[in-house]
Amino acid sequence: MPVDLSTPSGIAFALLPEIVLTGWALLLLLVAAWRHRGADDHRLAGHLALGGLVATLIPVLWLWRASPQPEGIALMVALDGFRFAASTVLLIGAIFTVLLSLGYLGRERVIVPEFYVLLLFATLGMMLMVGGNDLIEIFLGLEVMSVAVYVLAGISRRSGSSAEAALKYFLLGAFASAFLLYGIALIYGATGSINLTTIAFQLGDGRLVGTPMLGFGIALLLVGFGFKVAAVPFHMWAPDVYDGAPTPVTAFMATAVKAAAFAALIRIAVVALGDAITVWQGLVWWLAVITMIVGNLIALAQRRLKRMLAYSSVAHAGYLLVAVASGTAIGAAAYLFYAFAYTLMTVGAFAILASAGRDGESDVMIDDLSGLAQRRPWTALAMAVFMLSLLGFPGTAGFIGKWYILSAAIETGQGLLAVLLVLASVLSAGYYLPVIMNMYMRAPVEDRPEPGGVYDFTGGARTVIVSAALALLLFGVWPNRLLDLARTAGDELRSNVTMFTTGDSRIGD
Amino acid sequence: MSGFLVSIGYARWVLTALLVLPVLATAAVLLVPSARIRQVAFWGAVVEFVLSLGLWWAFDPTIASMQFETAVPWIPAFGIAYRVGVDGISLFMVLLTTLTVPITVLGSWHYIKEKQRGFYALLLVLTSGMIGVFIALDLFLFYVFWEVMLIPMYFMIGIWGGGRRLYAAIKFFVYTFVGSLLMLVAILTIYYLVGRETGIYSFDYHHLLVNIAVAQPWALWLFLAFALAFAIKVPMFPFHTWLPDAHVEAPTAGSVILAGVLLKMGTYGFLRFAVPFFPETALDPTVAAVIVTLAVVGIVYGALVAMVQPDFKKLIAYSSVSHLGFVMLGIWAVTVQSVEGAIVIMINHGVSTGALFLLAGMMYERRHTREISAFGGLARVMPAFAAILTLVSLSSIGLPGTNGFIGEFLVLVGSFGAYPWATGIATTGVIFAAAYLLWAIQRVLYNGEPQAENASLKDLSARELGLLAPFIVLILWMGIYPKPFLERIEVSAENFVVQATAAPATPQFRLAARPGEDDR
After folding, report:
1. Is A304 helix (H, G, I), strand (E, B) or coil?
2. Which residues contact B485 (CB under 8 A, 6 or more apart)?
3. Closest of A93, A89, A84 to residue A61, by C-alpha
4. Burial class (CB in 10 A: 0-12, 13-18, 19+), B427
């Protein structure tokens, strides 16, 4: 169905999910202002947030299904499958986070209903980021998201490490935003536009590609995104922040925040800078290689589960950078599939961790899982599924995702990158397998009532763990539908560019 | 017999049934009351074996191409399908697998006391995985089975293994994982190169094999990626170090499966993928010289190291390194005789070494030690055991009249023309084999009076005799009348030799329509 994006009603239609989410978040803010004392109020806010996220998911899916065709020139908002697919992944990540938080925050006595308001605003920022066809909209979305997440990281006011995490994240995040903004300014200076489609048109004839200003702009842009996705060498904040933040927030940061930043990066890389691929491909290549190797090597040395997961998420950022480095539609599709699988497996693993301990769980050691299979066979089984999926083992969605990324790399002739990716995966076996080994092959530690903690599963956490594990297995064996969706969405990203650039060149004539 | 098989449409469903049946048996094992687990697992494995026996008659030994082929689309967007089939090489690997599994279930009857449910469930899942590796004709499917098989074995070693089981399990996993991931990159590369050239993106084995010429510029790297994955699995010297650890620490069932089936996957991979895909690279004088040298080093080194092992299981493990060296030599000599011999050794090794591991397990169950020096004089207290151990050892040495002789003879005769020196040195491996095995059985069975602890050991029970019987029958049958085996292997071996030595085929961009084909 055609949508005229130059009219207010057209824009409102295109932004329907974001409008719903904004309205809901504002309402929730009011509710939280009136009712913010007891555990009941907290639970109410959580359920309302859940309702808001589901209410946002409906128009996203509806728009995705209806696949509206934009008429005229898209100014700020993209209207393609890639946006809706990425939004869906983000919303699933956010829904899982709320489900986890419901019991967790009560248990940790963090009774702050505003938590959910912030979560909704963060999600809103992400959706703007992945839907932005304009560097400024992407930046605004990123800031809305970041400011909310800074507060979320420090939401546990009694915890010193949580406050430290928030401050660290804020300082480095602000730093990264400055880099990003400077990069945007330079790209504007080089091309005279902040609209992704127009930038693509400007770069189309290749005259501007070699200019230093564009080169610096792209480099600074990559530094900014590198901070946000925790790519090495811009990852220094990640382990401390992931470690200090409350576990559901960590899960949120490691999945949804990362997925959103990657979606924006891929859109910029493929849509706007597709013709300048020679400028950035080498940079992303190196970022990917260093991130994969360093992330995996440091994760290998971790003894604490939470920190290991934090570094493993750094390593996974490296795998996603491989998808970015391909700079093609298949890379975008691989990102979508991988981001979905990665969200499921990471949130699942964090959900088990969140149920395992107390006080932020940063003291749960991998060795504490000893003998878990005997005491809690189902928990151990779910954890094993998550670990194998993170490892990229066949039969799980993690394998199909990794395989898709490898495909993207090999299809674009980057065989060496593919080889480095699989070698990095071998390293990761060195820290995912010990988790399984401890659970299944070691006897429980006798002097504790339960290994590693109390395993107090709330209904929400249980829902997250069971649905994530089942989905990973299902899509590992039968990924067809999901692969088709990802591929179509990835193709639409490219086809938009060609449609607009050819359209523009006609105007230019 | 074949008339009956045709009447029930055996050829159409047998391979799928062989894959699905162990999965159903796994589900049954997980659900039945604990007292019945072993019975359910055993009968499931027996039904699987009986089902697979039909292959022996239904297989047409005059056809070189794949038989019992089935193809059902799986992930059509990427040209991935469930494609299976067997030829004379995989036929025996499938039969060896289905024969080994019920025997290992019986062999674990008393050995596995804890967590029986998990053990038998994993064993049955492993069966599916192993069958899948041998019948897959889609490279994606092959890779999935190749990897999935790792997990049950990893758990079997890690949970029910000996003292250093954690180390052995992770070493086994990581070694295999490194090789197989590089192979995955190679598979994807071939897929894209062939797809781009022909316009048909498919993981179909035949499609890739016919059009593999487009991958020639990268042939060396692609071959090395495949070769590394398979060489680790064989295991070829110097990638063999995971094997002694895994064998020694694994429970008896794990060792028997490892020796009987898993080690064959490496050589099977060379026969099915690495060499037919890249014949020029594989048989390039330099590459061939390296591989033949490593094979011969493996033969001699394995035998010499086996000689000094104080641990009976470790001795058998190193003897595997030696035997698999003969297989590699036979493959690389690419004569019909040597390839046939290589396939026969693959079967023999499964039979003899599987039986040796079972016997070692029986010794361990009685004395809870595997040290050779702890035994002695067993011939007097356990006469049946002594007779069987002697027979199996002689078969492993390759005494004429046993199966071992046929395979080694064919390999040595077939290889002599191509590699006289290597073959000459390899022959010493047979002599060393006689030395280490005869010396070992001498120390275990004879050496005067039994030690005090051994004086009251019970001889083999009916169950133990029963589970060894199929191996003994095969040892003698293949040793005395190997014709039925050889005639089923021969055409496939010839086909392999033709594929490997024929002039490079020009790429054929048209693919004949095949049933169930559904490619992009």
Report:
1. strand
2. B92, B344, B347, B478
3. A84
4. middle
* Residue the block writes with tokens 């395989």: A403
Rounded Cα distance, B260 and B34, in Å: 28
Share of chain A above pLDDT 90, in %: 44
Q: Classify residue B162 as left (phi > 0), alpha (psi -120 to 50) or beta.
A: beta
**Searching chain A, which residue's CA lies closest to the CA of residue B162?**
A441
Token pair belonging to B259: 């020796």
Residue A221's H or E segment, with its range, is helix A212-229
Residue with tokens 């980057």: A414
d(CA A289, CA A293): 6
Interface of A with B in 386-445 (CB under 8 A): 388, 393-395, 399, 403, 406-407, 410-411, 415, 418-419, 422-423, 425-426, 429-430, 433-434, 437, 440-442
- Burial class of residue B220 in the structure, from the number of CB atoms within 10 Å of its CB (0-12 exposed, 13-18 middle, 19+ buried): middle
Residue A148: pLDDT above 90? yes
- Tokens 């990425």 sit on residue: A86
Q: Cα separations (Å) of A359 from A155, A162, A355?
A: 13, 10, 11
State yes or no: pLDDT of A506 exceeds 50: no
Q: Using an 8 Å Cβ cutoff, are A473 and A345 in contact?
A: no
Q: What are phi and psi of A3, to 5 degrees?
A: -130, 125
Q: Give how far A415 is from chain B: nearest CA, Å.
A: 8
Q: What is the dihedral of CA B346, B348, B351, B356, to 10 degrees?
A: -100
Q: Report whether pLDDT(B505) > 60.
A: no
**Partners of B204 in the β-ladder:** B138
3-state secondary structure string across A361-388:
HCCCEHHHHCCHHHHCHHHHHHHHHHHH
- Per DSSP bridges, beta strands A2-4 and A69-71 are parallel
**Is the model's pLDDT at B504 over the cut of 80?**
no
Instruction: Specify the DSSP class assigned to residue A73.
Output: -
CA distances from B21 to A41, A504, B87, B127, B199 (A): 54, 61, 21, 10, 37
Please enumerate in sequence order all residues whose Cβ is within 8 A of that of A12, keeping only pairs 6 or more positions apart, or say none. Answer: A19
Matching residue, tokens 């590693």: A452
Residue A132's beta-bridge partner residues? A77
Q: What is the pLDDT, as a whole number, of residue A356?
A: 77
pLDDT at B507 over 50: no
pLDDT at B378: 82
pLDDT value at residue B329? 92
A437 to B189: CB separation less than 8 angstroms, yes or no: no
CA distance B9 to A472: 36
Q: Taking the alpha carbons of A430, A432, A434, A437 in that order, is the dihedral positive or negative?
A: negative
Q: Terminal CA-to-CA distance of chain A, rounded, Å?
A: 29
Q: What is the pTM of this model?
A: 0.90
pLDDT tens digits along A52-109? 999 999 999 999 888 887 776 666 788 888 999 999 999 999 999 999 988 888 777 7
Distance of CA A378 to the CA centre of its chain: 27
**Among partner residues B75, B148, B188, which is closest to A480 by beta-carbon distance?**
B75
C-alpha span between A426 and A155 (Å, rounded): 37
Residue contact A403–B184, C-beta within 8 A: yes
B80's enclosing H/E stretch is strand B80-86
Token couple for A179? 């880099």
Q: Indicate the Cα dihedral angle B408, B412, B413, B415, nearest 10°.
A: 130
**What are the start-end ranges of the E strands in A340-409?**
none
In whole angstroms, what separates CA B185 from the centre of its chain?
Answer: 24
Q: Which residues of A touch B76 (CB under 8 A)?
A: 480
Strand ranges inside B169-304, DSSP E: none
Shortest CA distance to A51 belongs to which of A94, A16, A86?
Answer: A94
Q: What is the mean pLDDT of residues A346-364?
A: 79
Only one residue has tokens 């504002």, namely A26
